[in-house]
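Quick log. Single chain, no ligands specified.
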Amino acid sequence: MRVLKLLLRIAVSIVVFVAMLEFCARLDDFFTYGAPIWRTYSSEGLLQVDRFGKRGSPGARYKKWQLNSLGYRGPELRSGTVRIACFGASETFGLYEAPGQEYPRQLERDLDQWAGKPTFEVVNVAYPAQTVASAVQRVPEVVEHVRPRFAVIYPFPASYAWLPSLKAVDQLPDSSPAKFEWRLGERIRTAAKTVVPEFVQYQIRELEVRMHEDRVKKKAARYPVMDRVPEENVDLFRSDLVRLVDALRQSGVEPVLVTHATFFGKPLSRDDQQMLALWREWIPMLTGEGLLDLEQRMNAAIRSVAAERHTVLIDAAAEIPPGGKYFADFTHFTTLGAELMAGKIAQGLEPVLSSEIASSAKQNDPTAKNDNMNPPLHLH
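-> predicted structure:
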């Protein structure tokens, strides 16, 4: 009986201890982010769904993610700037970067540094899971609200592995019931990374990979697993990209295309193999080789559209090195990766922006000399 009472006391003490830590975590969220203490606090509140799919909820906030009054991530729009809209999915919206360090924000700072004064305004009009087809539908509202002069397009090709259910990918709301959230869990994982030895973390990643592989097998049972997506998927991606480029140009916005960079190098390392296994949980109908093949073919489509439509092309897939220094997972950037991405885009934009600034200067002062008014852009 004494042993049973002792075990019961230990169990109750552990429960009370964990509950107090969880309460402290919730208080920390309340004072840091203004999060509710008792109600569910998650990223789902950032987005809403309309007839075109997911879009930002105006003024919404979740931790480091803050949307402006138009529902775009970033600060409120200013007047008297040259605006550049960034279209894309979660890689553009920003996920793992430090607050305010997603590549659209860093791109704005790079361009202003080059110009020597606050001249440019980069507006992040991307949303997680946004496809190119959905972005086409968003062009009229972006043009109306933002009035950009240029648009950077950084598409997420792997979404086109979901054909024929592609149209539903970024349109259906999550109907799953709200679950209790342990806010303490994220803090424990973050702290563990700083104190757990590297070889232990490696074993944990191995375990995660095996768990992900089991989940992939269950998900893949609902799909015919492919080594290569059909050519019609690539054709649809290419067609949607052409429609987006044309829609922007018809609205007076000059598009800039960017190929899609990933974590994976050649040949694949053990880390690459692990990351590929984790990615497959999100794209279960493709083998790892199929995912890499899809990226290669979709990037070839981006390059061909840029050549055909005579747009500026920034070949991020070829210029951003693979690996964990620049990628936090299979496709999302670290802060350093976002910095490099912003620098590559800034350098690619230099010729067209020089012409834009020179044209504006000439309109304001017909006698102004525009030769060499901006130095070469070498930021990173």
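Confidence is low (pLDDT under 50) at residues 165-178, 366-380.
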